[in-house]
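Budget justification aside, the reviewers requested a transparent look at the raw inputs and outputs of the sequence design task funded under Objective 1. We therefore reproduce one unedited record. The lines immediately below are the structure tokens for a 118-residue chain.
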């Protein structure tokens, strides 16, 4: 298992271990319920799965083809860096924040969005 995946799983496990107050549990339950898949989203997902299976059978490269090319270009153009992020970008931030070089960083929100919020 790569270091990137190992650190990612470690962060997920730590976040799952957090004890939530009753109010926070209720808020999380409401948020999760709202985020549940609607029938339209479920149908679109099934349609995409059929397309992906067909493309695989035809031997086409489907890596990174979950979105329409226009959507991907618009997302790239809306960031300051004009690129999409990768898992390695998140792993690098996790490695830095868990190192001694970040020992004085506390209570901060780190946005890994390529400058989308600017």
């Amino acid at each position: 298992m790569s270091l990137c995946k190992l650190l990612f799983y470690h962060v997920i496990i730590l976040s799952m271990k957090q004890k939530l107050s009753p109010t926070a549990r209720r808020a999380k339950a409401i948020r999760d319920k709202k985020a549940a898949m609607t029938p339209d989203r479920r149908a679109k997902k099934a349609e995409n799965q059929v397309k992906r299976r067909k493309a695989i059978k035809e031997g086409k490269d489907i890596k990174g083809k979950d979105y329409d090319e226009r959507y991907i270009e618009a997302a790239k153009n809306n960031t300051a860096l004009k690129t999409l992020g990768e898992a390695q970008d998140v792993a690098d931030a996790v490695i830095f924040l868990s190192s001694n070089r970040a020992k004085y960083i506390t209570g901060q929100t780190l946005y890994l969005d390529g400058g989308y919020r600017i």
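The chain has a mean pLDDT of 77. The chain has two domains: 22-66, 81-118. Computational costs for records of this kind are itemized in the attached budget.
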